[in-house]
Every structure is written in structure tokens, then in C-alpha cells.
Amino acid sequence: MSTTQHQRQHIDTILRTVADTEARTPAQNEAGIIARSWRRCIDRYGLDPARPTPARYVPGATLREHQDQADALLQVARAGVEQLYRQVAPLSYVVLLTDARGIAVQFLGAKSDQREHQRTGLYLGSDWSESHAGTCAVGTCIHERTALTCHHSDHFSAHHIQLTCTAAPVFDPHGQLLAVLDISAYRSPSAKESQTFALQLVKTTARMIEDAYFLQRYGDRHIVCLDRSREFVQINRRYLLAMEEDGTLVAANTAGRKLLRHHGLPLPEAGEARPFQAWNIRDLLDGEVSEVLAIPQHSDDRVQAFHTRRHREIHFATLIEPPRRPGANRSLPRDSSLAPLEALAEDDPSMRDTLTRAARLRNEPINILVMGETGTGKERMARALHDSSRRRDKPFVAINCAAMPESLIESELFGHEPGSFTGARSKGMKGLIVQADGGTLFLDEIGDMPLQLQTRLLRVLAEQEVLPIGASRPIKVDLRVVAATHRDLRELIQAGRFREDLFYRLNGASLRLPPLRERADKGYLIRQIFAELNEQRGSRVRLRGDAMSALLAYPWPGNIRELHNALHYALATCDGGEVVVGDLPEECVHGQLAHPGASQGQALSTATGSSARPLHQDLLYRALCRHQWNVSAVARELGLSRPTIYRRMKRLGIVPPNQQPAS
């Protein structure tokens, strides 16, 4: 069969399968996974199987950002990836490690085949997200959260049907997707069963990487290892549980989380943006915490048998590298200057990685760009960087480039001489840049700065001097700039609305803040902000459990800023000494808006039945009101396109005020 005929047959198979599955849900096996993915490619992403999808690569600077974000994992995973490559290289496989967005951040393959690797996309920096590449091992693994083989014509794009690719997910200690490990080959037997061993090998290596990351992340906690076999408990390390001194469980590996669920201790499923539910080791094992902690001291082989409380199963337990007691190593004193940074997060892996980089950068003479959705705490991060640096005793000056009128930004930033323009102050004014001399200048929403002022700011950063309006001599300044944005500056550069040279001046290093819905330490943030507001009000109000549960379940489209406002509202309106669920804003209890981090706008897109429509009509209406009927802003909040918002409005009968008939 010729290549063209093979591709045509492949396209027909996809279209026929998608048509056949219109009225039913595909089976929960690998064939069903592939069929679901084909259907997403057509219905959700608008891909065409007849149109080949060539390899796509992110720019070098973007790749470095992705690698920086995955730095902690890459350090742990390197040995596992290299070991896997040594095993599969003789069979002409390449190995890719991608981040949770499908960008290849590590690659190992034969140098002699580099041109073929780059042509096919099996190379560093390639984008294997399902929305671009179609059905493929990496992209479909990210969406389905399960290991799979995408063999030859399983791929959606005819560009990839010569490949066989096998991928497995790597989860963090809270069940959030960290990365995907993939092996791929250009030539392989036609039977998919030929990849069975490859699938097991990749799954085993992914689990090794995942557990190594777990052990590094919780090396300062007691780590309990459980297994059904005494002989293998110290070697296999199947179930890993990290716990505090009192037995409180703070994290578990994937197998450990399954064990807890099996014994009636429910936890968030993999991919759910909810925090780890803190149980105690006593809830799982029929024994005291002291017995578990005493295993290394009182057992010759460091293994002890326990029954589980619910199913009475026998598990053998050991401790892995128990932490040093306080004072055991006085040569490494805790750096108290890092306290402002450490207060920003508790037990969220993504935030801890970001804060580790921030700690390294806090005294470096480079400008920093902080990125993240609106309300994720970018100014808090900037202030914490300042307060933990050697500049802490100098000014921290913040300006919101989006909130200040364009006519005032120039004089506010650069200052002016007396009488330099109509309306100028009689004594002149020292600009914010000069006021920040010796300290930190925080430029929030830098993407909204007018182009002409971007040119002047670039000159300030390049020459470290400011020329006030109407002045003849510049003023020397010593400052560090921290800029922040929720926008894609590279898109603005391509649109001619942001200077590329200014971007590189500001982006000496970048820090990305995750949205609140994706953070594993939401409970910590809720308690922290609630305590701060209590202190400001001079009150001692308690947050009751039902209110906390509602706050944890809400997706927080407005992020930390919305959380702060909701808690402020609850404290202001509660009756008595505690906040209950009825004291929270209505949307926190009933209006759980969909968000791309949850399910690609699922809540709005599934409003097809009459019973669901009133709720979604109310949610969309509230979002429109909140953004003064700015459809672009609502689309960004809900993770949908503007045309989709307009279609939803039309279907739900929502009419903007300026289009309603006069009464």
C-alpha cells in the first residue's frame, strides 16, 4: 500500500470512528482512550486529519522558562532518564521528558539522527500538546492522566503515523501532573503488542522518578514506607507516606494515595486542584505513632508488621532516612532574611520551586519579571523579594501601569521641574523612579505601559539615570526593577505593542506564579489571610469547618485577590464569633465557575439541559457584570474564546444593557 493510500485509509478510519462514537462513550481501555482523543481533536481543537501537523518548537527563551519551571524535577529525573535511554537506545528509541504542558524539556537520542529528530518533533523544545499535535502519547497522556502507547495509526496526524510512542505521567506528592516521560521510535513492528514491554519499562521509570522527587521534596519529614512483603519493603518502596512528628500525613506518592483511598481515607484524585487531606497514620495503621517512629531503633531489620484498621490487611513498615532532630547540625543556621519569601507558600511544589529560585535571585543585580494570572499575588512576591534582599532598608515603590491615566504616567515615573508643563507643580516633583533610588521599583501590569514611555524606561534601565520632564541634567539612580504582568508579552511584541529590547531588559530572570485553583496549599493561604484580616480588625473570629470546605472547593477565578475579598466580606457580615458557610459570598457557595485549569470551560459547555441552564445563565451573567460587560475579560477568566462567550450569551438569552430595548 502506498503512503498516500495509507494516509487516506488512516483519515477514513478516524472520521468513521468519531462518527460511530457520537452517541456513546468510548470504553475505558486504550482503544477507548484513542477514540476519545480523536473526537477531541475534531470537536474541541478543530484539527483536520487530512492536514498534516508539522513539528512545532517553542523559542529558545521560552524553552529556558519551561526548563526553569521544571528545574527541581529535572535535577531528580536526570539519572532515571539517562538509565532509561541506555536501555532503549540499542532499539533506536529516543527519550523525551516533557513538562505538564507538553513541552520537551529534556531529550536523549542518537546525534547521527538529529535532523530526523528535529523534523519529526522528537527533540528538545518541541510542543506535544494534544491541541496542537493531535492524538499522541504525550498530549493524550496529559489529558487522560494515564500511561499509554500511541502506535502508528493511533496518532491523529498523518505526519506521525510512522512513529510508535509510549508515555507515562509523573505526578507530584499531591497528585498534580508534573511531567510526562516518553520513548519513541521511527521503526517498529506493525503489531501494537510489540510495545507491551516498552509500556511497562516507561511506567516503572516514571514511578522511580516520581518517588525520587517525593523523597527529595520531603527529606525533612518522617517518610514511612509500606509493602505487603517484608523482604521487599526496603527495596520496592511501593507505598510512601510523609508525616509530621505527631503522625499527621502531609503527602503520599501515587501508590500511597491509592492505598489511603482503598482504606476509606478519601483524597483528591490525580489532577484535581484540591489540597492533600491531612489524615493521621493512626487512621490507616492499627498502631501508635510512637511505634512507627521507633522502627529504626527497636527492630533488628528495621521492619515492623502492622494491620490496617479498615480491611485488616498486613503491611510491613519501615522508615526511610528519618530527619535530623533540631540542633543536630548547627553549622547550617536558618537564614531569617528568607522569612518574607517563605511566608508566601507552605506545601505547594510549584510555589516552592518558584520561591527557591527567588531566594537565589534576591540579591542578584538583575531585573525580574513576575508572571501569572490576575490576582495571583505578583505584588506580594515583589515585596517579598525586596524585604528579603539587601535593599530591604531602602524604599519599595509600586506603580500600576494599567490603573494610572496615560497622561500622568510620564510625570509620575520620571518627575518634572517647576513649571515644565501646564498643570505642573510649582515646586516640581520627584518621580517614582528617583524615589526608589537604592531600593526596588515595582511596575505592575507592565504590558499596559504606552510605547513612548517604554522607550524612556528602556533608557533608564540601560543607563541607570533619569531625566525629569523639563530638566537639562539626568539624575543617577541605583535601583532594581521588578515588573509584573498577566499578559503574554511575546504576543504584544509580535503585535507591535511592546518593545522587544525592553522585554529582555526586564526579563533578566522570570518567576511564574501558579493560579490559586492549582495550588496544593490553599488551606494554608486561607488560614493565613483570615488571620491577617482578623488581626487588622482586632477580632478573634473563628473559621468553621463548613466554610473552609466551601472555600477549598471553589475554583477562585479571581485568585488570591478574590479570596482576600471573600474573607473580608465574610468577617464583615458574620454574626457572632465564627464564620459559617452562609456568611460567604454567594458565588463561593453556589457559583463554582468553570476554569481552564479544571476542565477547559466544561461547566459552561455542558449546560445543555433545562435544569442546568438557570445556574449557568446566572454564573455567566455575574461574570459579565463583574467585568462591566467586557467580553474579552470574561473570556480570559473562564478560559473560553470570545466567540464562545457570545454564543453562550445568545443561547442563554443574556443581552448587554446597551442593547436592551428602552422601557
Automatic annotation (TrEMBL):
Q: Give the protein's recorded name.
A: Sigma-54-dependent Fis family transcriptional regulator
Source organism (scientific name): Billgrantia sulfidoxydans
Q: Name one Pfam family in it.
A: Sigma54_activat
Which ranges carry the Sigma-54 factor interaction domain? 344-572
* KW Electron transport (keyword) present: no
The source's domain of life comes to Bacteria
Task: Supply the alphabetized keyword list.
Answer: ATP-binding, DNA-binding, Nucleotide-binding, Transcription, Transcription regulation
- InterPro entries from the entry? AAA+_ATPase, AAA_lid_NorR, GAF-like_dom_sf, Homeodomain-like_sf, HTH_Fis, P-loop_NTPase, Sigma_54_int, Sigma_54_int_dom_ATP-bd_1
